[in-house]
Amino acid sequence: MTIEWNSSAGPTLGVEWEVQLVDAQTRMLRQDAGTVLAGLPGLLESGEHPKMRHELMQSTVEVVTGICGTVAEAKADLALSLKDLQRVAEGQGMVIASSGTHAISHWRDGKMAPSQRYAELVQEIQWPSRRLQTMAVHVHVGLRDEHRAMPVVNALAVYLPHLLGLSASSPFWCGAETGLASSRSVVFAALPHTGPPLGLPDWKSFEDYMAAQLRAGTIRTIKEVWWDVRPHPDFGTVEVRIADAVPTLREVGMLAALVQCLVHLFDTQLDRGYKLPSRSPWVIADNKWRATRHGLDANIVTSEAGTTAPLRDEVYELVRDLEPVAWRLGCAEELAVASEVLEYGASYERQRAVYGGEGDLTSVVDALVTEFAEDKFILRGDGGHGG
Questions:
Q1: So where are the chain's domains?
Q2: Neighbour tally for 241: CB within 10 Å
Q3: SS3 call for 250
Q4: Which of 96, 126, 211, 218 is deepest in the core (most CB within 10 A)?
Q5: Architecture (CATH level 2) of domain 13-374
Q6: Of 244, 278, 259, 197, whose CA–CA distance to 346 is shortest?
């Protein structure tokens, strides 16, 4: 089986951000994506919007960028779409928020989007897909050819805990404290064909794997392989899918900067004949769990011998190492937001601080709505930071 790669010129960037429709009064999720999307300006003749679309649940709108050259361009693209989305949603009694899960609403109250593809997926997967009221951020970065894809995917897998720890934003699920930094990761992992990539060594191995999956009827299209990081041949990108949806555009920019810098660094290292970072499958899987459970407070495995180090320290070192790359790509300001998250707390920490202070999950949703609207962190006791 031959899978064509749509070559990208340099580390082009695309971002997909799944945001929540929240009732302005009750703070519960509203299952009204269809009416919101229908009210947007700029609809195509098909009735669809070029930059905003349904996700599986009617509580969610996915906002996507075009092909961007820089993180700043991607942020500006998202901001323009979100301005229209907010205006239409507010006219229908809704506000926008973003986190990996909604703290209060129950998945049983969710309604599926009117899509034949989604209906077929739900029919096939059943209960795990019916409770998939979760939200994420996906970052695509372009590569010149398919032969770079699997080495870069495998190298990115080493940094899944870093990206998840910084973005973890789902400590609550259906009105309960889960004890996890990212309950979304656990809910999504119940689907087939998810989790870390398989460590396939080259493009031929990927083609053979996909051919076998299709022949067996396990999948109908390669888009049904939902690894935490995967190649996307149609776009000519590697797509990082590990991140929870984060509350602010600043944090989306941070994730885009981290991924773009890492991919560009690995691409350059391949040109120079360097060996890219790698870890055994057990290390990658264990580190993902550690970040899922503990977020930035995890100790992650840093060698095959089982040595460990604090994830916060590892993230700090990664940001410092990527700073020269970020200056070359023009995203140093966005990369620096990671240092702010280390200092002031990732979203799961900020949500827990609000809940601990107020004792009320509605206050958590209030804080997330404010963070989204004002593009700054809500920190208990000092009124916020950033922006």
A1: 13-374
A2: 20
A3: helix
A4: 96
A5: 2-Layer Sandwich (3.30)
A6: 244
